[in-house]
Amino acid sequence: MNWGKGLILVMVIFVLFIPSMGVFMFLSPADDYDHRYYEKGLTFNQDYDREKQVATDHAQPDIQFSGRKMKLTFTHPAKGKVTFERPSNNLLDKVFQLDSGLGTEIEIPIVSMTKGQWQLIFDWKSNNKSYLYQKEVFIK
Length: 140
What we know:
By secondary structure, the protein is α+β, with helices and mostly antiparallel strands. The chain contains three helices and seven strands.
């Protein structure tokens, strides 16, 4: 093969490459941009203080999985919510209300939860203090 045919072959490959990249870009899934970015920025200091309060009081909940239930144990009676966020699909996100009553344990059924990686966001009040705790878990 002489250099002319090689040059034409390279140009044809390049001409096919450009439209294929355009099609690939349009068919790729949406970016992972957090659409609540600005709202989170406005409450950053409050959230930071609540996360720091968890570390100060050693109040992080103990999380255990048994069968298709998640058992949470708090240091004091707690009332609030836990948000299950799925990093790969925000349509699967779920929110469960927490209320331990006078005790410190809460069980949450996870039968309907898809197996895989989840981000748990605990937002609760206990002993007249507000707490915020985040934990990444893998549901089997």
